[in-house]
Specification:
About 40% of the residues lie in helices and about 15% in strands. With about 350 residues, it is an alpha/beta fold. The chain has two domains: about 170 residues, Rossmann fold (3-Layer(aba) Sandwich), CATH 3.40.50; about 170 residues, Glycogen Phosphorylase B (Rossmann fold). The relative contact order is 0.12.
Length: about 350
């Protein structure tokens, strides 16, 4: 049994792929993970796995030096993908979206290998939208995604978004000790995803710095690598209990004590919020076809989260919302209970089952 898994470089692609691989490992002889070259730069630790890297780059059809360079890298990745498919000779190929998976899935389809893709977001990305027409199955995280795909409903499998097995609730006392925090304080978690968000970092810090009653707060801020040094220096002057990280792999500790999360609305973040049932202020990334807004509305419609659009995010608005949540614990309780609307799915196991079904 030989399975190839291909994904993009962001945590939103890699973490679901790794969760699937963990579910496959006990029963699969050989697994190969294919990643873009730029994923070598991120801080996501991947061990005990066979990995191949291919070139990839975003480009448009407009004539420019950057687009010509991007197209050349994409074509190079196409040839590298062909070599990988021939050499590894997989039985099943699983793609998790991103431009670099197009070549891998295309060659797998051409060589009549079993193919399945997984779409993490409500609105499919461009790569998965195109590949859904080729592959044998399309697994989705949200039931709403079916409405965006021009394929037979029989090929769509609702599995949820695979999360790492270690993302389970930790005892509150243990998590508080981990950060050196106090039980009586309001714990705020700020995260812009694995890549970080400069806008979220900037407005959230300015809000906290100017907030009344900030002595009642304790902050976990995951900034991403680009803003980390500056923010770390600035926090020392604010007079608030805080822990700041450029990247934080053990999110279960943060989620287990967070009273409120302020974050972007990537698909993995939404799935993690659902697992831990945490009230959230979501500020969707406004670009990339506004797919994060569609993700956020899943929680907003259940009254588990509040959406602030990126262009409406400012210090005054955020301060007002933070004070409301800090002074009204009952409001947070209502939002926590709203998560009961979502049926828990063991997404990694369900997706693994779809892979194993090819062997029957």
């Amino acid at each position: 049994m030989r399975i190839l898994v291909a994904c993009g470089s962001s945590g939103g692609h890699i973490f679901p792929a790794l969760a699937l691989i963990d579910s496959l490992k006990p029963s699969v002889d050989q697994i190969l993970l294919v990643l873009p070259q730029k994923s070598r730069e991120n801080k996501i630790s991947i061990t005990s796995l066979r990995i191949e890297y291919i070139h990839s780059a975003n480009f448009t059809l407009r004539l420019s030096k950057e687009n010509i360079s991007g197209a050349c890298l994409f074509l190079l990745g196409f040839l590298e993908s062909l070599r990988i498919i021939i050499k590894f000779n997989p039985d099943v190929v699983v793609g998790f979206g991103s431009l670099n998976t197009i070549a891998v899935i295309f060659w797998a389809w051409l060589f009549r290998r079993n193919t399945i893709i997984h779409e993490q977001n409500v609105i499919p990305g461009r790569a998965n939208f195109l590949l859904a027409k080729l592959v044998d199955k399309t697994a989705v995280s949200f039931s709403q995604t079916a409405g965006y795909l021009s394929i037979s409903a029989k090929k769509i499998k609702l599995v949820g978004n695979p999360l790492r097995s270690e993302l389970t609730r930790v005892k509150k006392e243990e998590a508080l000790d981990f950060f050196g925090f106090k039980a009586e304080k309001f714990t705020l978690l700020i995260t812009g995803g694995s890549q970080g968000s400069h806008r979220l970092n900037t407005v959230c810090f300015e809000s906290i710095a100017s907030l009344e009653k900030k002595d009642k707060l304790q902050i976990i801020h995951i900034s991403g690598i680009h803003d980390f040094v500056v923010l770390k220096d600035r926090y020392t002057c604010v007079g608030v209990a805080y822990k700041i990280f450029d990247f934080f792999p053990t999110m279960q500790y943060a989620y287990s004590i967070a009273d409120l999360v302020i974050s972007r609305a990537g698909a993995t973040t939404i799935a993690e919020l659902q697992r831990f049932g945490i009230p959230a202020i979501l500020v969707p990334y406004p670009y990339a076809y506004a797919h994060q807004l569609a993700n956020a509305r899943v929680l907003e419609s259940a009254k588990a989260a509040l959406i602030i659009k990126d262009e409406e995010l400012n210090v005054e608005r955020l301060n007002g919302q933070l004070l409301q949540f800090m002074e009204n614990p009952a409001k947070l309780d209502v939002m926590r209970r709203a998560y009961a609307e979502f049926k828990p799915l063991d997404a990694a196991s369900l997706l693994a089952k779809e892979v194993f079904d090819f062997y029957r």
